[in-house]
Specification:
Mean pLDDT: 94
Number of domains: 1
Largest sheet: 6 strands, antiparallel
Distance between the termini: 25 Å
Order of helices and strands: EHEEHHEEE
Strand content: 35-45%
Low-confidence stretches: none
CATH class: Alpha Beta
Radius of gyration: 15 Å
CATH topology: Alpha-Beta Plaits
Number of helices: 3
Structural class: alpha+beta
Length: 117
């Protein structure tokens, strides 16, 4: 099956400002909707040496309609909206949402940036 890799970096003004974290309800939703179903393969967050930049990388199975599923998921979009608001209030900037699509043999098929996400 093909895979979708998505990643974005966030930069905070100082280490006194916490990065946005999903709450228990958000984590439970991700578990039920995406992990238990095999749609979300992995999610990883890494911080820069100075701890000011966090890069989150997600790997998804390219199930039919995945992009539409993610775009239309009201709960997921509410989590994203809360994270954007938190970041705006706390001076955290976000890079564009990048993506790469790999075929079943793990060859890079396509890459780009999702608009307005």
């Amino acid at each position: 099956m093909s895979k979708l890799k998505m990643w974005r970096s966030e930069t905070r003004p100082s280490t006194d400002v916490a990065f946005f974290e999903k709450n228990e309800g958000d984590l439970a939703y991700y578990q039920t909707a995406y992990i238990d179903t095999g749609v979300l393969l992995s999610e990883e967050a890494t911080n820069s040496d100075d701890q000011l930049v966090r890069t989150r990388t997600l790997w998804w199975n390219m199930v039919p309609g995945l992009i539409e599923i993610l775009a239309e998921d009201a709960t997921l979009n509410e989590i994203i909206a809360r994270s954007k608001l938190y970041n705006d209030v706390n001076g955290i900037t976000r890079s564009e949402l990048n993506f790469e699509i790999y075929d079943a043999d793990n060859n890079l098929f396509s890459a780009g940036v999702f608009p307005n996400k």
